[in-house]
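Milestone 3.1: sequence recovery, worked example.
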């Protein structure tokens, strides 16, 4: 059995690697091919090309990257046709993946096209459900409430739960502090500036300024920045200009420990917010995209009040969000300091985060295992 995985962004790359690992235990003779990053490479999957130029966000940003996307779609589709896998699994990255699914079908590929994680149709552009249904054969989605969006269009779906909930090994916060010579009483601010190159340009500078304001107020505090793999070099370079005491963590094995060690986190919106909440650390979240993209999204596309998944699940702003017009260093720093100086507020937010995590399915069967078993089930049985 040959399965071709396509993962264009860091979060998709990680999820793909987790599912591949599970498939190996279910069907050990499976061969894996595809497009991905460092996590898939660790599973022995050589990537067709470097995916970093596909990690873009925003409508205008997507338009600017269109030529690159189109080129990569063609390369991926033709590689799939040449390799003739028994199934193709397209992970996250809505815009790129539906185009790959469409193109491989046009070129004559007849195997199942499986989409792993659907677009957030409940938040923006519900019409994407119809588009996805026209170009893939099965969807592995996160939430039960996604299914009704696809039912009218005949797309079969399997709910696997939130992948971030499987990454909940309890971090050793005390051990992390001792390893890096921090006292138990040392205030630690966790800084998470993003995993896309575009986020390092648009989001990171404001988060860095907020961290500096935190350090001015909490003079004995330290900032711990966990740098995501694809942007580690960029963050290390940026850190040379930081005017606050900091420690850069690039070791993936220390990530959970760093999350657990922090008193408060200041994070770019993304999957990482759920991972931090799983360690019992309260967060403040921020995000920004290009202004033209924002105006179009806000006026015509956005249906949800929130972008942080825990807030969406809770139906309330349990984690402070500072998006676009509210995304300023002063507002972020104020929210972080209010949490830091108010233990009761910290406890209340952690409680609400835990309730949201329970609502999202924490403690259930691993999503990677559910996805792996369904993918194997969907692969056609070869005769003879």
């Amino acid at each position: 059995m040959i399965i071709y995985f396509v993962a264009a962004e860091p979060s998709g790359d990680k999820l793909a690697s987790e599912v591949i690992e599970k498939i190996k235990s279910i069907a050990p003779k499976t061969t894996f091919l595809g497009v991905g990053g460092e996590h898939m490479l660790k599973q022995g999957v050589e990537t067709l090309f470097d995916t970093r130029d596909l990690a873009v966000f925003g409508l205008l940003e997507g338009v600017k990257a269109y030529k690159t996307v189109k080129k990569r779609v063609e390369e991926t589709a033709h590689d799939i046709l040449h390799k003739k896998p028994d199934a193709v699994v397209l992970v996250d990255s809505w815009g790129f993946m539906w185009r790959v699914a469409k193109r491989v079908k046009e070129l004559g590929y007849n195997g199942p096209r499986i989409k792993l994680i659907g677009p957030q149709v409940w938040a923006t552009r519900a019409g994407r459900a119809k588009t996805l249904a026209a170009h893939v054969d099965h969807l592995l989605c996160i939430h039960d409430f996604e299914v009704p969006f696809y039912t009218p269009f005949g797309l079969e779906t399997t709910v696997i739960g939130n992948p971030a909930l499987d990454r909940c090994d309890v971090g050793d916060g005390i051990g992390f502090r001792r390893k890096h010579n921090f006292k138990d009483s040392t205030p630690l601010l966790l800084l998470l500036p993003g995993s896309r190159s575009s986020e390092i340009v648009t989001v990171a500078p404001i988060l860095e300024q907020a961290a500096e304001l935190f350090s001015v107020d909490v003079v004995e505090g330290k900032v711990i920045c966990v740098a995501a793999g694809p942007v580690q070099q960029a963050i290390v370079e940026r850190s040379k200009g930081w005017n606050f005491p900091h420690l850069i963590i690039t070791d993936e094995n220390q990530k959970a420990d760093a999350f657990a060690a922090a008193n408060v986190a200041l994070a770019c919106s993304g999957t990482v917010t759920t991972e931090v909440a799983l360690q019992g650390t309260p967060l403040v979240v921020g995000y920004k995209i290009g202004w033209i993209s924002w105006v179009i999204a806000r006026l015509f596309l956005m249906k949800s009040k929130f972008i942080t998944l825990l807030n969406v699940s809770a139906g309330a702003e349990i984690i402070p969000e500072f998006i676009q017009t509210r995304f300023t260093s002063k507002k972020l720093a104020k929210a972080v300091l209010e949490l830091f100086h108010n233990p009761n507020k910290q406890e209340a937010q952690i409680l609400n985060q835990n309730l949201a995590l329970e609502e999202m399915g924490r403690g259930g069967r691993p999503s990677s295992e559910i996805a792996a078993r369904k993918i194997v089930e969907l692969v056609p049985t070869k005769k003879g």
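Confidence is low (pLDDT under 50) at residues 57-63. The domain at 2-163+364-378 is CATH 3.40.50.2000 (Rossmann fold).
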